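Worked example 2:
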Amino acid sequence: MVDSAEGATMPARSRFDAVHKWVATGAAVAALIISLYNLAELQKKPKIDVTLPHLMRIGPRDKGTLIYFQPTVATRFKTQDIEVIQNVLFRLTPIGSISYAKRPKFYWSENATAKFDFASQQINYDWAGDPAPFIVSQDKPQQPTFMFLDDSWSFQPGRYDGSLQLSLTGNRKLTKKFCLIMSKEAVDEIRSGGQRGLYFFRNDLPKFTSSRKYSGCYVRETD
């Protein structure tokens, strides 16, 4: 009877051992697939995101116009690689009733840093760096303040389509679009404010965001 019982348990034990081996093999294969996937993800180029600021500052510069613009450039995904931003272009195109007007040719003049002057209660900008490629990675997001300059152009009232274009490695481009609305009052204010004047335009003012006309547009608060 004992021999019979032992003989009955052997097949069950063999089946258990076989199942255990299959489970262990399956787990090892799954772990290998996950490891290969993670390795592939780490070796990918980082996916760059650009978030436009809520505020744009505009002012006269001699016979031209300057714009301070501070976007956030970051990647949300972890990779071993980094992204190098080679160049930044800022474009404005007159549309609608002023589509015939001259198109400005802004160029990246420098990077700046803002300082608050308590005596004048104004924001002033100082030089912070030359226009140069910069690095973006998951642990190193960037929020530079770009100064864009056109040496011989000034605004006229109307609507402008705008874009901020980043040149990435491998001749890739990343473009974020927006619009800017310049009222006659805003243009007169800028032209009469003197060379040190800076005027901010926002795209999140409650009195404008509720209107489809101003959706996604930077508008002067006093308009």
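The two ends are 101 Å apart (CA to CA). Residues 36-43 have pLDDT under 50 and may be disordered.
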